[in-house]
């Protein structure tokens, strides 16, 4: 397949498309339209693109945009397939539940991708979302439900209806890392207990495991996950406590101010 350009005798040009073994298809365009067609085939940093370099993205930025486009396209495809599987009449309830978990995890991944793009967009300031009123027990059920499908570690969940103000993605990341660290510490034959409750005006997320205890396990991603939890606690009136528990392992306890349904975050 090839393109070639020739004058059309009317002050413009014709752009022709020739496919091997086939006739030539000729598209008549005015001169300015031909220029636009040709320019769009060149990336902004190309020296022959005719686009000024000032203010245009660099090659690295342009490639990052292309990758971001493809990633978001694939995420949308996975979400669509999971949605179809979830409602398929020939799929059993267990498989439908797994499809719901895949759909939920993909949505969180999409939000993580958006947060990554905003953080490394090159802008001088990144917008900070106002805290939302969220139910911590529902987040815990989603996190535990997803991790249960990917590990043989026994994970128990006790969750009372508990409300607090927080950025939903930030809290999900914190809780996900707390539970993930506990599962890795407990091991495939171990036991993890997750508890969500309101105690004396505090919303409490507590994760216990029967592993060797904090700092005694194998090195890995535990410290990075803990940094993510600490970053969440640094954003407000929140506290993180780590201690040994009755199971013999580690207890990670996250406290934040409890809220009432329908309340608004204080500015």
Strand segment tally = 10
**Biggest pleated sheet:** 5 strands, mixed
Radius of gyration: 27 Å
Distance N to C terminus: 62 Å
CATH architecture of the largest domain: 2-Layer Sandwich
The portion of residues assigned to helices is 40-55%
The CATH topology of the largest domain corresponds to Heat Shock Protein 90
CATH class division of the largest domain: Alpha Beta
Classified in CATH, the superfamily of the largest domain is Histidine kinase-like ATPase, C-terminal domain
Q: What structural class do the secondary elements suggest?
A: alpha+beta
**β-sheet strand percentage:** 15-25%
Mean pLDDT: 76
* Helix-strand pattern: EEEHHHEHEEHEEHEE
Give a short summary of the structure.
The chain has six helices and ten strands; from the N terminus they run E-E-E-H-H-H-E-H-E-E-H-E-E-H-E-E. The chain has 267 residues and is α+β, with helices and mostly antiparallel strands.
Q: What do these coordinates show?
A:
41% of the residues lie in helices and 24% in strands. With 267 residues, the protein is α+β, with helices and mostly antiparallel strands. It folds into 3 domains: 2-40; 63-119; 132-257, Heat Shock Protein 90 (2-Layer Sandwich). The strands form 3 sheets. It has a 5-stranded mixed β-sheet with strand order 5-7-8-10-9, with helices on one face. A 3-stranded antiparallel β-sheet has the order 1-2-3. The protein has a two-stranded antiparallel ribbon with strand order 4-6. Strand 7 and strand 8 (202-209) form a beta hairpin.
